[in-house]
Amino acid sequence: MRILLLCNSDSLAIPAVIEMQKKGNLVAVGVTEKSGKILIPTLTSVGVEQENIYTLNNKNFAVTLTQLIKDYQVEVVFVMTFPWKLPSSVLALPGKGCINFHFGLLPKYKGTDPVFWQLKNMEQKGGISVHRMTEEIDEGPILLIDELPVIPGETFGIHCQRLGTLNSSTVNKVIELLKQNEQPQIIQNDQTGNYFKAPDRNDLTISWKTQSADEIEWLINATNPRYGGALTTIRQMQVSILEVSPASVNMDANNPQEIVPGTIVYADMVYGLIVACLNKQFLKINIVHTTEGYLSGTKLFSLGFNTGETFY
Length: 312
Description:
By secondary structure, the chain is of the alpha/beta class. The protein folds into 2 domains: 3-196, Rossmann fold (3-Layer(aba) Sandwich), CATH 3.40.50.170; 213-302, Roll (Methionyl-tRNA Fmet Formyltransferase, Chain A, domain 2). It has helices at 14-23, 33-45, 61-71, 88-91, 114-120, 156-179, 213-222, 297-302; strands spanning 3-7, 26-32, 53-56, 76-80, 98-102, 109-111, 125-132, 142-149, 194-196, 230-234, 237-247, 264-268, 272-276, 282-290, 293-296. The strands form 3 sheets. It has a 7-stranded mixed β-sheet with strand order 3-2-1-4-5-7-8, with helices on both faces. Strand 14 and strand 15 (293-296) form a beta hairpin. The longest helix has 24 residues, at 156-179. The radius of gyration is 23 Å and the shape is elongated.
């Protein structure tokens, strides 16, 4: 099967590229100008010929794709994290259509960056939803869903690496499905699921007063490394937290006063900083990013951060 791949990610697409190369299915790859500097060397390193890699821009990519489909006699276009909507003129060209590999579970998580939203929302599983493309984003009939359980504590980056590994087998399943005269498919109802936009600053910011310790930890994992950590403030300085872990603290039973969430309740050179959360739960600060660099909780203590100070 002659496949043209459109991709915008290395970790999610490269394992599948290797598999398609091995089977002799991949005839050409299209990447965006923005991602080309990173992706082209990676693609050539796994055996894709430089002459078969095309850099696309948003102004004329449809014209370029039309020509590529004709020149390479493309039977199907595979799309993996490609950021631009394909026009109907392109969707109709390949004999077996245009197939999107959506790295989240449809129909619940449509739109941008489902990995972030699934982790932030503390979902127990993610996966790859493969669907036929239409002019509406993530709305086409679903051919296949490969689910992937979320490992407790895994970050955005770890989950993406695991999705990429899974994708190397998913792509073979899809190729076999497309060889059949009829493919099983699930028709999506326009009213099902949610369409998510790219997370904004508010989505990336910790709310110590309203989020539980678990919610804060999952948010932090969802932002690492893609968004550089979850945002918070201390001493009127923005800090990005990249890693925390649950902690147990025995507070003075004789002091019934409620501790304000975000308050540092314990600090030393061994454990670093431990912060209070809602419902008498606590998180140990492991790694943060500030303008001075990446710092451990222990390093923050040595720099003078101490009990009684508050993240907000």
